[in-house]
Structures are given as C-alpha cells and as structure tokens.
Amino acid sequence: MLSIAPKLAFISNEESSTTLNLFGDRLPDASHEESTTTALRSALTCQLTLTKYNLTVHGGLSFIRSTSTLCHVPSNLRRLIQTTVDTVDTVGTVVEPLDVTVDLTLHGRVFSTNSLHYVLHMSAPNVTSIFPTTGSTAGGSWIRVNGYHFIDSHHTSCKFGDSKVSTEGRYLSSNAMLCRTPASEVVGSVVSVEISFNEGYSYTNSRILFHYVSGAVILSALPSSGPVAGGTNISVHVENIPTNEKMSTMYCRFSSSMDYDMLFTNNEESFMTPVTAATSTVLGSDNASQSDHLFCRSPPIESVMLLSSRGKSVNVDLVVVANGMEPQVISVNSFLFMYYGQPELFSVDPVSAPLSGGSIITLNGKGFSVLGS
Asked: Where does residue 281 rank: exposed (0-12), middle (13-18), buried (19+ CB within 10 A)?
C-alpha cells in the first residue's frame, strides 16, 4: 500500500462510520469477476490497530480498482475504546491524538506487505457561531468561526452551503478560526458554514447560517456608549460600502423611534451626523477583502426619564443624502449606542497617596454602573 486519505480523522459523538481511502498496487479490482478474485475480496478486511489502547478492530472493504480501495471504520469504535481503556472517564477528553495502524488482512492474518498510519482525534470539531453573519455577494471577506475541538492543521478549509468548492480557512485557536467567503449569484441566499481539517474529506454538520446581502455590513462600532451631552467619537468598521457612494454624502443616523421619551436637540426622533473621516484596511494577502474605517460623532439627546445609572439605547445605521433627497439607507444592519446621564462625584477617599502608586482609592457618587467593569 502506498498512501492513505484522510490522514486525520475524528470520532463523532454519534455512531457514524468513517471511510478511509487506501491507495496502492495490485489491490483486488472490482471489475474482475473471476472466482478466485471474488473469493479473495470476500476474505479481505482492513485491520485497525490502536497501540496505545492495545486494541485491534476490523472493518469492511469496498473495492474500486487495482490501485484504490475503501476501508470502512466500524461505527462503534468510540464505544470499543471506552470499554477497552482502564479509566473510561479519560475517553473523549484525550489531549494527545491517537496513532492508528492500518493493514489488510486475509482470513484474519496480515496480508499487506506494509502498514499505513493515520491520526485519530477523540472529539469531533463543531461550529457554534460565526461573525459577521452577513456578507457581500461579491465574496472575498473573512468571517470568524467560533466552536470547539478545532485542530491546527495544514489542511483547513471551509464550505458554504452545498458548494463543491472549498474556501480558505485559517486556524486561530482550538475555539476559533477564519473563513473566507465565496461569491454568490443570489442576493438574500442563506447558506450553512461548515469547516474541515482534513482536506475536505469530512466537514462539520453544525448548520450555522450565513446570509448574503448587497448592502454595506457594519462589523463593529466602538465605543458603544456615551453621555447625553453628545460629542462621543465612534469608530465604525464597515464592509462592502457601495463604490458609487461618496463619503461626503454619508451619515450615521441615530434613531430613538422606539423610545418616545428620548428626543434629539432638533426635537426629532432621529439625527444624522456626517462621517468625518474614512480609511481602508485590506484583509488578506491577495487584497480580496477590504473594510472601511469610518468615524462619526454622537449628537446630544434629551430625556426626562433617563437615569445616570441605567442609560438608554438608540439604533445607529448608515445613510446617504444626495441632492437634498430623503436619506437612503445603505447598511443592511445597525448597531446600538447607549446614552447615559452624567455621573455625579461626591467624594474621594483618601485624598492623597504615595508617589509609588498602588493605593486603592474609593470614589463616592452615583451613576457609575452604566459602563460596567
């Protein structure tokens, strides 16, 4: 036997079978129907040996041609390992991957002239969330994929929907990785995002959904809160801004239509502040993905019911205004910005401390809890 694929496999929590591709020379050919060949095929199995647990199991074979055959790993392999090891609790949390030796056997005896090896992980990867959940139909942007049991592999890839073509994936940690989105011809299409660590031989089946859109996507906005007096500079990262939109006509629109107690200084439920600066950041070495870094300033707001210790939120989206027309929304999502009343400081204790620092100072007042830790 010459090679095996995949060289990396996982044991699912469910009892599902894994198939290994074995490549070599002079393997039984499915197209040959001679009686001796048929008898040989029926007596052959693939033998899997886990030396660490002193465990040997056998799987069935599917013959393709003289250079290729399939080995079907028993679906109950996890249960077999659990009943073999001395401490059952260690199974499923094994840090070190297992080395599995693969041989061909004839009537229970090793028949192949050499052995092949692959790496087995006791826990299968799973995707729990992605960010952002929307992106341009042009593709080429990066999304963050969160989950668990991710592997630092040189053969990481991503799949969006039923596409037969995988996209680039980048490992970050055992709980996070990046996936590059492919292009889509359908605006509004929703596809699942799955990942693979073994050259696409097996993908997750987590069914976390990604939505293709045609407008700008707001990726982040910081800070997420500011005083009612306004004047907070907000840094907004945006992707897929339409190329025909000029920054001079773009605004951040603050809307409080869901809270009738809150009005802006123009006595309206919304207020637009211009984008004051813009820079572009290219993501990826091939310049396929670009995000714009925008800045806008929060307007002052009035509220009779606003408490300094709680705060109230407004929605912020991106709009353009051209030739005196009504604002046109260009972002497919928005972000929340929280207004809080001005905190009041009553006293400081102690009022002096050593130059070396390290002293704990207590501030007494009200309205301190709105920003959290």
From this structure: exposed
Quick check: do 3-121 and 126-213 share a fold? Answer: yes
For 272-294, how does the pLDDT look when each residue is reduced to its tens digit (9 = 90+)? 888 876 665 544 434 444 578 89
Judge: domain 3-121, CATH 1.25.40.10. Answer: no
| pTM of the complete model | 0.67
Domain residue spans in the chain? 3-121, 126-213, 217-340
- Report the CATH fold assignment for 126-213: Immunoglobulin-like (2.60.40)
The per-residue pLDDT for range 123-142, each reduced to its tens digit, is 889 999 998 888 888 888 88
Q: Cα-flanking dihedrals φ and ψ of residue 91, to 5°?
A: -75, 135
